[in-house]
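sanity check both lines:
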Amino acid sequence: MKFPNARIIVFAKAPVPGKCKTRLIPALGSQGAADLHTQLVHHTLNTVTSAKLSPVELWCAYDTNHPFFIGCDKQYPLAVKQQYGRDLGERMENSFRETLKTAPYAVLIGTDCPTLTKQDINDTLQALNDGSCCTLHPANDGGYVAIGLSKVSSRLFSNINWGQSSVYEETRQRLEQLEWPWKKLATHDDIDRPEDLKNLNTVKLSNNAT
């Protein structure tokens, strides 16, 4: 099934050595971490654009004019937009608020989870289409790898301990307080820390860099 009115939002940083995948630098070095980040971004964009489920938006940090993002814009069928906000939560909230002005629902994903599949995105969009206000794909480290929304509340994004193992539980508690119908979907592994690198053995990255 396709969801042409929905949106798939991908959050990504430019692959600047020392400014991305910083927790992997002790294992890979600054350049190695940036190179892996480049692969993960391409893998994610290839997954979501080739799925052809919904229009894709690439929300960029730090600057949409970075050569990497210009290349992505040329390579994939997507719209490039600028992230804005004081922290990750505010940037995510702002992207949803803007996107949901014209779309009935949207899913936001990062680029740290190469096991997220077309079927996972389809499950998210289907749940939102069926009436859930929120969907979450939890991460085994206590965060989440994808969040889908049909409406927005600052309570889901403000004063969250981003990057900590409590993110999913904090978000779940706030959803219960909001009394929104929501759905928990499949759990995945993030590639954030040196101990996560072993998870790359289970997936073949589709690095389409040109």
